């Protein structure tokens, strides 16, 4: 008995020692990629300081619009796409718990009760006086047995599976953050576009009023014989065109309002946004920092890096499948014919066992599985690097857009001022009878076009600003992946 116990302890010590290793490559961190030391298009932009690079949290508050802030507060809990990614994150967490369960042995309790009958025949007597006697016996059988089975993680297969699933869970957390950031950025873009339409409606309303006064003036001059019927027709055409443009803006505004409702997780019929006479939001400076910051500040890049870690761990899983698997099993309990005495010492039973399984020939299946995992790893590395390059391009694009649009806006402001002066001069000349209404109509049309172009530029600058914030990761940091996972585990 002592020898058996010693042998058992030695076996478990050997298993424990072997369990310290894990086959397959260890993850060395994110693949290397040259991001450059500075953004090409950042020349002239505000330089970032450490405070600028701190997590911004509610990044949309930099625009100073209370209505937008209120909408953003709701989107996290009502947007259905965000809810979908949140559910997928919880699914990934549960899958991680499933993977970790393989560390532990499985236990099962087997309770049984059966009743059987057996028949026997006996022959008695001698010679011709023999008789056969039939006897039957009823037997009860009761059992209570505890079964245990455990496959030690000798080659680290389970550890690699847990490592892969943890990376998948963190990638899912990053995907959730990316979905939320995308919804927030889309909401901000739609909101600013809607507010610019409100401003355009105010502009067109004022223009219609001005054109109505010009038409009245022209009609009075026509009655006095100063101008021709053609001038009246020109003034009417100009007025009606402006009214049609004003009406057409209602289509775009309604569509944007509906889009915002869907982002909020509401039916369009249950959502409305009051018109605002002017765009009250301010256009802030957004420091870009350095390109390497994107690796920590963009959730899509973090998700791609975690996919690389997962693929690396899967190579270890595929490698471990080529090694022998050891299974330890045991059972203990009681078995007897009487329930009342079932747990007496004579009814005790037990067993211990071990099994070793080694693949010998599978037609190259396991080797092909390892090669497939390695190829998948290479694919995720390329995808990670492409995601980083795409992120760098988005930042550069929007930096360039903001810089160029700022110069364009300054020129457009001068164009609006010049068009305003020209329209005033033409109207005064018309009133004095030294110019035709064609000159008035032409200069007023140029003024309206210049003012609408200025508003369009304003909307494009806000859109580029939002896209730059999104391209920089909003207020997200890669550390939030592990923080969320740790909080959920607690």
From TrEMBL:
Domain of life per record: Bacteria
Subcellular location(s) per record: Cell membrane
Keywords: Coiled coil, Lipoprotein, Membrane, Palmitate, Signal, Transmembrane, Transmembrane beta strand
Membrane topology note: Lipid-anchor
Principal location listed in the UniProt entry: membrane
Positions in coiled-coil regions: 68-95
Span of the signal peptide: 1-22
Family, similarity comment: Belongs to the outer membrane factor (OMF) (TC 1.B.17) family.
Database matches in NCBIfam families: outer_NodT
Record's protein name: Outer membrane efflux lipoprotein
Gene source species: Silvimonas iriomotensis
């Amino acid at each position: 008995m002592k020898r058996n116990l010693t042998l058992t302890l030695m076996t478990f010590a050997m298993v424990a020692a072997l369990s310290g290793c894990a086959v397959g490559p260890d993850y060395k961190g994110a693949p290397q990629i040259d991001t450059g030391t500075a953004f090409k298009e950042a020349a002239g932009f505000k330089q970032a300081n450490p405070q600028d690079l701190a997590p911004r949290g509610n990044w949309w508050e930099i625009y100073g619009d209370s209505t937008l802030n209120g909408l953003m507060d709701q989107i996290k809990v009502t947007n259905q796409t965000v809810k979908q990614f949140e559910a997928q994150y919880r699914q990934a967490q549960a899958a991680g718990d499933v993977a970790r369960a393989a560390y532990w042995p499985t236990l099962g309790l087997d309770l049984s009760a059966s009743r059987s009958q057996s028949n026997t025949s006996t022959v008695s007597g001698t010679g011709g006086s023999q008789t056969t006697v039939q006897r039957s016996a009823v037997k009860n059988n009761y059992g209570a047995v505890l079964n245990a089975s455990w496959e030690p993680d000798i080659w680290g297969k389970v550890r690699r599976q847990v490592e892969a699933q943890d990376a998948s869970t963190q990638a899912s957390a990053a995907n959730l953050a990316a979905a939320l950031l995308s919804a927030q950025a889309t909401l901000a873009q739609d909101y600013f576009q809607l507010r610019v339409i409100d401003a355009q409606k105010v502009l067109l309303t004022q223009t219609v009023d001005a054109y109505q006064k010009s038409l009245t003036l022209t009609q009075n001059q026509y009655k006095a014989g100063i101008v021709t019927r053609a001038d009246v027709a020109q003034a009417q055409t100009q007025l009606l065109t402006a009214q049609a443009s004003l009406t057409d803006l209602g289509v775009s505004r309604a569509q944007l309002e509906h889009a915002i409702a869907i982002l909020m997780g509401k039916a369009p019929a249950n959502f409305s946004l009051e018109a605002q006479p002017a765009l009250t939001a301010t256009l802030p400076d957004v420091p870009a920092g350095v390109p390497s910051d994107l690796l920590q500040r963009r959730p899509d890049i973090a998700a791609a890096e975690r996919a690389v870690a997962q693929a690396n761990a899967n190579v270890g899983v595929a490698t471990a499948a080529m090694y022998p698997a050891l299974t330890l099993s045991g059972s203990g309990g009681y078995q007897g014919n009487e329930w009342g005495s079932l747990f007496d010492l004579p009814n005790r039973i037990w067993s211990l066992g071990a099994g070793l399984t080694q693949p010998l020939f599978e037609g190259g299946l396991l080797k092909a599985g390892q090669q497939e995992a390695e190829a998948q790893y290479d694919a995720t590395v390329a995808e990670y690097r492409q995601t980083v390059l795409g992120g760098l391009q988005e930042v550069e694009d929007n930096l360039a857009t903001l810089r160029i649009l700022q110069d364009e806006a300054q020129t457009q402001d001068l164009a609006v001022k010049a068009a305003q002066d020209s329209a005033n001069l033409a109207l005064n000349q018309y009133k004095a009878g030294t110019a035709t209404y064609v000159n008035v109509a032409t200069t007023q049309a140029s003024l309206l076009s210049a003012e609408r172009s200025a508003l369009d530029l304003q909307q494009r600058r806000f859109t580029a600003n939002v896209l730059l914030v999104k391209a920089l990761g909003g207020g997200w940091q890669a550390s939030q992946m592990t923080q969320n996972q740790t909080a959920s585990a607690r």
